[in-house]
Amino acid sequence: MTTPWRRIWPALVVAGLFCLPASASQEEVDKQQQQLKQLQREIAEKQAELIKQRSSRNNTTQKLKQDERAISKQAAAIKANLTKLNGLNADLAQLTKQQNALEQTYQGQQQQLAAQIKASWISGKGEVGQLLLNQDSADKQRLLTYYQYLNQARIDAMEAIKATKIALEANHQAQLEHRDQLKKTQSKLDRQQLDLKKQKQQRQRTLAKIEDELRQSNRSLSRLEVDSEVLSQAIEEALIALANQPLKLDGLAKLKGKLAWPISGKISKKFGSHRQGQLRWNGLVISALEGQDVKAVAPGQVVFADWLRGYGMVVVVDHGKEYLSLYGQAQSLLKNVGDSVKEGEVIALSGKSGGLAQSGLYFEIRHQGLAVNPSPYLKRL
Questions:
Q1: DSSP H helical segments within the chain, as ranges?
Q2: Do 242 and 372 belong together in one domain?
Q3: Which residue(s) pair with 70 in the sheet?
Q4: What are 8-42's pLDDT values in tens digits?
Q5: How far is CA 230 from CA 226, 235, 236, in A?
Q6: Which of 49, 202, 341, 346 could make an S-S bridge to 293, C-beta 3.0–4.6 Å?
Q7: Which residues form the domain of 349?
Q8: What's residue 143's pLDDT?
Q9: Within 10 A of 288 (CB to CB), how many other CB atoms are there?
């Protein structure tokens, strides 16, 4: 941080240059003026360099924001296509099962029709002649009814076979279409995975540049302080924006010790533990692999879903009665501002956005604008 002395020393030097004795020669005056001009040039160069450094830091931060937003979008698309792929595979398995059942039905119907034809032929060998010669109208009527029944049974059997055959053909066509969709979806998924890999590599380059700038300027502590203030301000603004859309929510006070964990993993940073300088962690950092499901701990409404410096991709859920839960450093956000969420609903994917080296989830609970220890609210592991 720039000290007051460093800020005022150029002014003191300049003032000193003007405080020349009255007896000073013209040569000395000219010399001092040359020194003054040189000093002014150096000050201007330092100011230009400072402006350039600040602009560079801002540009690099914006680049990180763009990189992590792109990763978030790509990861969400991959998640959607994986879900689609699983659905197509399940449908295909069901179609295969249906095909096997239809084939068994088809074989059974063919055997039934063959048996009917055979029985009709055997029983009708002598009865056709008897029907023609028999003068008993009652017997004629009985035989005619019997043959009509057999004939209708054969017709019904043939219609059933026809319907089963049509169903088999439709099943076959559906399987072909599903396999084609599977192939296209898998191809798209492969391209998205490749793009995601490139975006992560770009993020690493941007992150390395930020770390280099922080080392050179030694401003990491003040940066963390500013990041914390920005987070609080963003949440406050989001709540104000959604103040006219109140939902009937009961808060978290009655759910202490009952909330499910937002993600499975080991706690790497506890609430209140030392972070840097005088700063302490306002939440929990839970270690987890990238791309794991992050779930809402309770019903609520999304009031913020975007990138924030120092926290990466963040989603904040309002649970009512001034209770909020915050989920940071996500790889991807799956909900938008205004969305209602249920307890246990997937709202994000774990990651390491915000310039972090290790993947996981940053989780906070806030009440009346202040961060509180989340652990008493969560179920014991």
A1: 4-18, 26-133, 137-217, 220-241
A2: yes
A3: none
A4: 444 444 444 444 454 455 565 555 556 556 655 65
A5: 6, 9, 10
A6: 346
A7: 227-377
A8: 58
A9: 23
